[in-house]
Structures are given as C-alpha cells and as structure tokens.
Fold this protein.
Amino acid sequence: NYQATTVLAIYAETNVNRNLFGFEITPAAYWTLNAFFAVIFGAVLTGIWGKLGKKQPSTPAKMGIGTALYGISILFMIIPFSLFPADVKVSPMWLVVFFAIMTIGEAIVTPAGESAASHVAPAAFSTQMMTVWGFSGTAGANLSTLVSNFYREGSESLYFLGIGGSTLLVGLILVIFSKRFAKGMGLNENAEAA
C-alpha cells in the first residue's frame, strides 16, 4: 500500500500514459482509486461475509488472505516494469489493477484486524488495543519509508519482488496456520471476531 506513495507515485508521473480522451489525468488522480474501490469492495465483501455466516474464513485466515493480496498487487507491478522499457508510456490500467487488488486486500484486512483487536483485548484495555492496531499501520508506513531507500532506478522488478514476495509469504503463513492462530486468540469456528 505504502509503495503507492513512493515508487509508484513517480511511475504514475513519468511512465504512465495519462491522456484519456484528450484530457490529461494528474498522477494524484490515481490515488482516488483506492477510496473508490474501498467503497465498492467493502460493500461487496460485507455482503459475502454476511451470506457465508459461520462458514466464512476465520479472522486470522481473512488477515492472511488480505495480506497475500497486498503482496500479489506489488508482484503484479513487476509485469509492466519487465515488459516495457523505461521510455515507454504504459497503459493506466496497470495502476488501476494494482489499486484494485491492493484495495481488496485492504478491505479484508482492516475490518478483520479492527474486530480482532477489540475481541482479544480484555474489556478494560479494548481502547488501548485499538490504538496498538492503529500503530501497526504507522509501523508499516515507516518500514516502507526505510525500504524505499533500497530502490534503484532500473531494478524495479527486483525491488517489487522482494517486497511483494515477502508480503505474500507472510500472508500464506497466516492462512496456513490460521486455525492455530484462531485457537491462540480464543476464537473458534462458531465465535469468530469478524
């Protein structure tokens, strides 16, 4: 997610064809896609979880699926960096698909994480646990800032492979061990947090 405001912001400005029916789209306009997709995918996922009821994935599994989708969105961006030379203006659809995949992941992780944070905390500390959950986003932004120091022009594929691959791996670990994590969180199949 935070790579969107670093490397991909530069990419949108320098390497994306921003001409749409004779109108130039500003690089900042792509960042509204996240909000647009969040409304759509949030509503769709709410409907899906409601339909599934007790058959929906556990909270840790949801967090794993969402995290894996974050990783996939970053790995997806290897494709345009590999296919097109640096001087070619690419279709804006590359960024649209990136934001779509990333936002689906975000729409799964955020509510599950917030619900889990309040569910696992003792009643007297639920507010503090929500604050800790909020700090996790801050920690992610800070790590992204540190990782962006490793970015070198021309090595985008390797850069995205490292970030996307490690994120996908964490997501898969969460999914694989989701039953064990759910048990450790005091959740069972009939009493999930989200």
About this structure: The chain is about 70% helix and 0% strand. The mean pLDDT is 84. The first strand starts at residue 19 and ends at 20. The helical segments are 7-14, 32-52, 59-76, 78-83, 93-120, 126-147, 156-176, 178-184.
